[in-house]
Amino acid sequence: MVARPSRRTFLRGAAAGLATLPAVTSAVAGGTLLGGCGGDEVEPVEDFSTTPGRIPPGVSGDAELLGGALAAEYRQVAAYLSGLPLLEAQALADAECFLAHERAHVARLRELIGGLGGPAVGPRPSYDFGLPGTSADVLRTLERVEQETIAVYLQIVPRLTDPLLRATAASIAVVEAEHQAVVRQRLGRQPLPTAFVTGGR
């Protein structure tokens, strides 16, 4: 039986940048990153996207790219907040933990964008997630929103010009992939049908 790498080692490697994303997607699809926040089997997700770092001045275009990621993170925060009342037990605990991660991502992206001279853009007044009536409805919505956010990061990471920004965006993508894997597990599905899917299920 082959021992799995520790989450700490794996995610620190993933934070090195886009070059690590294929390994990350493979691990997620294989289930090595599965787990809730503070569950019995694994430790909580470690969010390296909040690590302080140098903000290089005048990085052309990067603030706009990060603004797209920030918009996706705002949407995720809204999705988790709207879904909490219908969740319970471990699914509720997972969602509360993941919501904390998304809020940390928002704070970090706002810091990075501000450091690049970008505007302090806020969330939209409202988001349409339909009218979920059950816990499963909420989880399906969260799975879809996580998937769409991962797609955003896959688009922006190779276009960022600064290594620090690429590393930060890649580390956030890893966290989002783990969120999606856990949500799919709560729905009784395989962690991910393909590595970092970007289209429909």
From TrEMBL:
List the signal peptide residues.
1-29
Gene3D superfamilies registered for this protein in UniProt: 1.20.1260.10
Is the Signal keyword given for this protein? yes
Q: Which InterPro entries match?
A: Ferritin-like, Ferritin-like_SF, TAT_signal
Keyword field? Signal
- Entry annotated with the keyword Disulfide bond: no
**Official protein name in the record:** Ferritin-like domain-containing protein
Q: Which organism is it from?
A: Conexibacter stalactiti
The organism's taxonomy opens as: Bacteria, Bacillati, Actinomycetota, Thermoleophilia, Solirubrobacterales
